[in-house]
Amino acid sequence: MSKQTHTHEPHGRSHHEHPHPHADGHQDQGNQHGDHGHDHDHAHGDGRWARLRHQLAHLVTPHSHEAMDKVDSAMETSHEGMRTLWLSLGILGATTVVQAVIVAISGSVALLGDAIHNAADALTAVPLGIAFVLGRRAANRRYTYGYGRAEDLAGIAIVLTITASSALAAYEAVDRLLNPRGVTHLWAVAIAALVGFIGNEWVARYRIQTGRKIGSAALVADGLHARTDGFTSLAVLLGAGGVALGWRWADPVVGLLITAAILMGLKDAAREVYRRLMDSVDPKLVDAAETTLRDVDGVRDVGQVRMRWIGHALRAEADIVVDPHLTVVAAHEVAVAAEHALIHAVPRLTAATVHTDHLPHGADPHAALAHHSAA
């Protein structure tokens, strides 16, 4: 049986079930983009033209699997996330201050609800910032996959914050309905509503764009929340217009509508966080991985392919089937080629474990595991 597992670790280490010296120059050429120290002729075909195509592919999509390059990449995404959080905090903080001042002089409960949500949205930068800082820490013997899951915990904190702010806004709106009070300075309320919309929409676009770029579900969820807040800010204009027409109930009713809209946005944010916690990935990524593996020279069939997010990076596990008569060295080369192809084909994939099995040949090689699978 030719059975081995090849794992590309995010910090530049590879572990196998068999020792191999990499005598082809992996140690000397590991930092070059040309061939990564392996003879990749087995992955890209034979001959000079295949090697030229491989080198051109690296020039077009340069990458390195070495430890320093991966650490730099993680730091880069973390810094980009932190920059987004700081800018968002500044914009939403300024928006909240402006709205709070107008609330104090006007008594608008609809604007109060909007200000509460803006303040909560600004404060969500705190757990996300902590998560990004933790994500920079290297993996160790206890946290062998690193600290990327801190972002998922931050996502939970964000959902809870949104829920609490919605409850507070709803309470204030109901209280105003039961105990009506007048609203003054309607022109200032209208201006504050526009300020809230502009600030939230800018923050939403920036957070969603950065979150999708660096693969942070928590940051995307936070951006979706900010976008909902932006549209609810416009609803404050309706409340001010209703009050101007003499409808005193318009302001608290709009406050309740804002709460309902925030809860609808909460559903989207909670779904994003839930999917990440449950290791959900886009099925198209799995399809792309399976197609890529089947195109690798030496791969006869593809078994199970699994992926999961660790922070804003993907890890993969894949089973491939090879010829049963291959030597251990040859089977290992196919595994390396398969891993290499996956890293090129799947965006944000930083590590892959490739398990090689062989075509049917004699007794079932997995017979010893059968009772474990049944359990």
Describe the structure.
The chain has two domains: 4-64 and 281-374, Cation efflux protein, cytoplasmic domain (Alpha-Beta Plaits), CATH 3.30.70; 67-277, Up-down Bundle (Alpha-lytic protease prodomain-like), CATH 1.20.1510. 63% of the residues lie in helices and 10% in strands. The protein contains 13 helices and five strands. It has helices at 26-29, 41-44, 48-60, 67-106, 109-123, 125-135, 150-178, 186-214, 217-244, 250-277, 283-294, 328-345, 370-374, and strands at residues 4-8, 14-15, 301-310, 313-322, 349-358. It has a five-stranded mixed beta sheet, with helices on one face. Helix 4 runs antiparallel to helix 5, helix 4 (67-106) packs antiparallel against helix 8 (186-214) and helix 7 packs antiparallel against helix 10. The longest helix has 40 residues, at 67-106. The two termini are 25 Å apart.
Outline of the structure:
By secondary structure, the chain is an alpha+beta fold.
